[in-house]
Design brief:
By secondary structure, the protein is of the alpha/beta class. It contains 10 helices and 22 strands. The protein has helices spanning 229-236, 269-279, 296-299, 303-317, 335-348, 367-378, 400-419, 423-429, 448-461, 499-504, and strands at 34-38, 60-61, 66-69, 79-82, 92-97, 102-112, 115-119, 124-127, 130-141, 148-154, 162-176, 217-219, 240-248, 254-256, 283-290, 321-326, 353-359, 385-389, 430-435, 437-438, 445-446, 465-469. The chain is globular.
Amino acid sequence: MRRNPHVPRQARTVTAAMCALTLSAGGVLAATVFAGPALAQSANLLTNPGFESGSLSGWTCDPGTATVVTTPVHSGSYALQGTPSSSDDAQCTQTVTVTPNTTYTLTGDVQGSYVYLGITGGTDSWTPSATTYQPLTTTYTTTASQTTLQVYLHGWYAQPAYHADDVSLTGGTTVVQPTSTITNSPTPTPTPTPTPTPTSTPTPPPGGGSGSWKHPVYYMPLDNNAAPISSVISGSGETEYNLSFVLDSGGCTPAWDGDASEPVSSDTAVLADVQAIRAAGGNVAVTFGGYNGTELGTDCGSASALAAAYQQVITKYGLTRVDFDYENGALDSNTTIRFGAIHILEQEDPNLSVSLTIPMTTVGFPGSGTDEIQQAVANGARLDVINIMDFDTGLLSGTETAQTEAIADDAISQLETIYGWTAAQAWSHLGITLMNGHTDQPSELFAVSDFTNLLNFAQTNHPALFSFWSANRDFQCPAGAVEPWNPGTCSGVTQNPYDYTKVITQYNG
């Protein structure tokens, strides 16, 4: 979800190999790590790295999405062409044998919109738009027991074909880890020191407030023409809110919308909203991430540093609930740091409730979504709610209601497989989030009647929560005003104020 969404979303960055991911934050070295000699291994480890065999030999690609072409190429005679669809990002992967405790460098040249090059379980590099070939590079250090590594290339759902050429994976520095000084127990992470609250700022009430948490709507308190929270509450009856978004304003510094002029540390405006919501008998969560800006996990260099940044926000607002919405470049990126940080937060506060919000496809979670869930499992990070963004997939056929229900059903099947849950257990952990009116996809429109139909679907299946993006948009657009497609301030359909919110608030689990 985003501040003023106009751009296609979700990129899948990894395949099912995520189940083999290892911890980075769950088991920490108890002694100094010593740099060893540089490896002699500098040859390209990839088979058919420039596709010069004239085939996809050595690569495993999503069926029907990839081919080898003779133009455009970066060098030689051939290059990869991947063609995404609305439900597939045209991913190609290759798995190679590697040495433990070794840093590897992955490079490649790509052309197209939203093209990703990365390493499963590590980081990726991407370009939003390259009209000619542009180089991408990323690095990754294998774990003490890791002997294989998977690289991937992919495009973006529903985007034009992309091209890739001259992919290279080379070894670099090895790290010596003395076995006698390694422990499987994490080194205790000091409790982050809360950012001092200005003396003029009221202290938030302890315990995070009261009230249920069945239908928390998303609300941007400082953006998208936010109405006063008192009028939102009185006009809609809603008292549960996911406040969005906290991002990085630079140097691992939490700020509203990533704006350096709105740091969490000195905020008074959002804090007043939090207190007003709790005074009305409600509760809040804060959402980290969203589509725009820089998510904190991009700049905070370690799980402990990221946990400290998240903790500043938790402490500031007395939160018992947090929501993580990793999108755009943060989607399935730096996952060991991000889920390692969540694990640290949960160790420090076992009662903290955590939701992970994931973009969807018409067939359920994309690979990036299942990868993130698998990484959470690997890092020991508990996900109380896996919240699906059940919109922006484009309506392929049938009705909006039917397709939205089918996506939720697909997600349930995937959660049963990943966690070994029963269907009832999976539903108890699933969040369903919709979008009112026109969405980012021109083929997609949620009428109030669709929300009502989906409310009945939710009442039957009992998901953990039923929500929508966003309260800022729950208005009819002004007559005669020239609005961009899908504005962040109105729905684009004929409605009364808060028609959609009033449907959502009826969900009782």
